[in-house]
Amino acid sequence: MSYSEKMLDQLEAGQMEAAKKSFAWALRKDEDDTLFNLAEQLYGLGFLHQAQRIYLKLLDKYPDEDEIKTSLAEIAIDGGHNDEALAYLSQVPSSSPAYLQSLLVAADLYQTEEQFEVTEEKLREAYEIAPTEPAVLFALGEFYYLVAKYDQAIPLYIALIKQGYTEFAKVDIAGRLGMAYAQSGKFTQALGYLEQVDPQYQTSDIRFQTGLTQLHLGKLTDAIETLKDLIDYDDQYASAYPALASAYAQNNQFKQALTTAQEGLGVDQYNEQLFAQAADIASHLGDYKLMDKYLKAAHELDPENMTIALQYSNFLLQQQRYQDNIDLLSPFIKEHEVDPQLEWNLAQSYMKLEQFDKAGKAFETALPTYQDNPEFLRQLIDYYQETGQHDQLVDELEHYVELVPTDTEMIDLLDSYQNY
Fold it and tell me: Which residue ranges contain the repeat TPR (predicted)?
């Protein structure tokens, strides 16, 4: 048995002191090929310093061996010494058998520096040299997956599967494909691959994406089962709760939906979107006190979120809390935020409180957006009636009747004003 083999056995047995001694003897006594294999093994085990010592010893003896240079570059990258890595890689000519590997290592280096254009350039060059090489297909696919170019990643993963690879570098290819298809909005294809993922690769992310994909496809029973299993498996996976709550709500199981949202808030108490979702679910149960509580909490967590503010505003209007609605929306006006729905909601509150000047300004701002909205026009007509603006009233009545020719009440009202 070589000293290299002894060292690996001792490492496996946890005999660290004995392994150190065997390593020292291996450097002195073992054959070069044996040492090279030991370096690869040590690198894979995370013993970077020891692997580096071997490679440096071999490079001193074989200065033209480019494979050693790429290995040293990989170790330098892992240690955060990118300049050192580049120095090694620059010594590998394009004519070298190790050039392909050097391109992959260089791509890894530039990716760590978030120089994604250069990363892609190196990987594309590698692909042009060896378009069927599994390591190249995987590296380029992973790059496109990382930068969210899923449509470009998909054919590369498919090419790996066609070569018989279901797993590469401890990554489940079916899982990657399923995730990429899902992110591209191709949910039917996504689910086909996600359901093929081997149990050992069923991470929380894979389980979540499977449930979310089932939800997108309207497979509510399957989605509920998958997301419940995920929470049983990992109850701190916060994103599972709003997804499961949504599945329950779409299945008209509102009590279960609310309970799930509340459990999610126990895990993620600063999630304003989940508070807003819980409020929406509570509306289906007629629990207005709970709606108020959750919408207030959501707004306080993110007071600049217009979507949540308008959801809260709609609730306050429904509850006839007109001054509260004005207090809620006024800060947006002071910040010169112009949103037609915001203005319409303000107009309704001002009308109810008989603040007609303010109501008129709000209606005027919202009018270009809602000029063909019958509900808005009905309220605007009420405003013109209340303020005695005859000409504007007739104009809007005529427009309304064009939009809703079956509304006999409004037709009669128009006739009365036209004959006035």
Answer: 340-373
Please give the structure tokens belonging to residue 147: 């930068």
SS3 of the chain: the string is CCHHHHHHHHHHCCCHHHHHHHHHHHHHHCCHHHHHHHHHHHHHHCCHHHHHHHHHHHHHHCCCCHHHHHHHHHHHHHCCCHHHHHHHHCCCCCCCCCHHHHHHHHHHHHHHCCCHHHHHHHHHHHHHHCCCCHHHHHHHHHHHHHCCCHHHHHHHHHHHHHCCCCEECCEEHHHHHHHHHHHCCCHHHHHHHHCCCCHHHCCHHHHHHHHHHHHHCCCHHHHHHHHHHHHHHCCCCCCHHHHHHHHHHHCCCHHHHHHHHHHHHHHCCCCHHHHHHHHHHHHHCCCHHHHHHHHHHHHHHCCCCHHHHHHHHHHHHHCCCHHHHHHHHHHHHHCCCCCHHHHHHHHHHHHHCCCHHHHHHHHHHHHHHHCCCHHHHHHHHHHHHHHCCHHHHHHHHHHHHHHCCCCHHHHHHHHHHHCC
Mean pLDDT of the chain: 95
User: Of the candidates 407, 371, 373, which has an alpha carbon nearest to the alpha carbon of residue 392?
Assistant: 371
CA 370 to each of CA 200, 378, 398: distance values in angstroms, whole numbers, following the listed order? 54, 11, 15
pLDDT mean over 92-114: 95
252: burial class by Cβ within 10 Å (0-12, 13-18, 19+)? exposed
**Residue 420: its pLDDT value, please?**
63
Q: Which residue has the tokens 């999610």?
A: 264
Q: Is 218 exposed, middle or buried (0-12, 13-18, 19+ CB in 10 A)?
A: exposed
Q: Give the dihedral sign, CA 174/176/182/185.
A: negative
Question: Residue 331 carries which side chain, given as an amino acid letter?
Answer: P
Residue-wise pLDDT for 297-356, tens only, equals: 999 999 999 999 999 999 999 999 999 999 999 988 877 667 899 999 999 999 999 999
Q: Which amino acid is at 23?
A: F
**Contacts of residue 258, Cβ cutoff 8 Å, sequence gap at least 6:** 245, 278, 281, 282, 285
Cβ atoms of residues 275 and 298 within 8 Å? yes
